[in-house]
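Please think about what follows:
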Amino acid sequence: MTNRRKLSLTLVIVLFVASMGANVGLYLLARNYYYDLQEVHFDPIGLEKSWIDQPDSAQTNVVFFGDSRAAQWTSPEIDGLEFLNRGIGGHTSNQIMLRYDEHIEPLEPDVLVVQMCINELKMVAIFPDERDEILDSCRQNTLDLIDRAEQAGSTVILTTVFPVGKASIARRPVWNDDVAVAVDEINVFLRQQSAENVILLDTFELLAGESGLIDPQYARDLLHLNPAGYELLNTHLADVLESAQLN
């Protein structure tokens, strides 16, 4: 077999393997979306979910609230503070607000750490005509959440939406740069919400690399952080809690 034929055969094999890998990735992505959709059909806002952890009235109660990014946020160890988590993966800000009464109000949190909106902002890529409505919904739900928390006497630590990563081949059919642009636009709005009982923690600035996407050292995948990312956030969260004299 000539070198040219060997090279051609190698190229065919590489392309075949790459094609198979892409197909497997697309299949897994579609399957996960299907499972998530069926779960939403059974429990649209997550009211069937239960947690073992309950607040200790003797300590200052800090609750993480929001989507999967909140759900995966590991609790720092700070004397005098108790951390609970009420994040649910896949939830939009609409779903998060609909479960506020069930999941947050009974806890009477002293501090509410909020991370949400990415699950509707990513829809901008596939529903470009709905872009304004999507962003307006995120803004309004943020204001409503702040209002509810303030009425309950909670301090809100409002985090900016984490930066996204670089989309894999499997994601590209349902992803484009408009998502990152929408994240930037919502973050401009979030940075304007600081008030007496609303503290901004600019998680986007902490996690972003030079490209405006997430710094790879903090990324687990397109949307989520690895342990190093949460370790970085917890360092700054501890400073915010200390400066607010909450511990």
Summary: The longest helix spans residues 3-42. The mean pLDDT is 88. The chain has two domains: 1-42, 48-243.
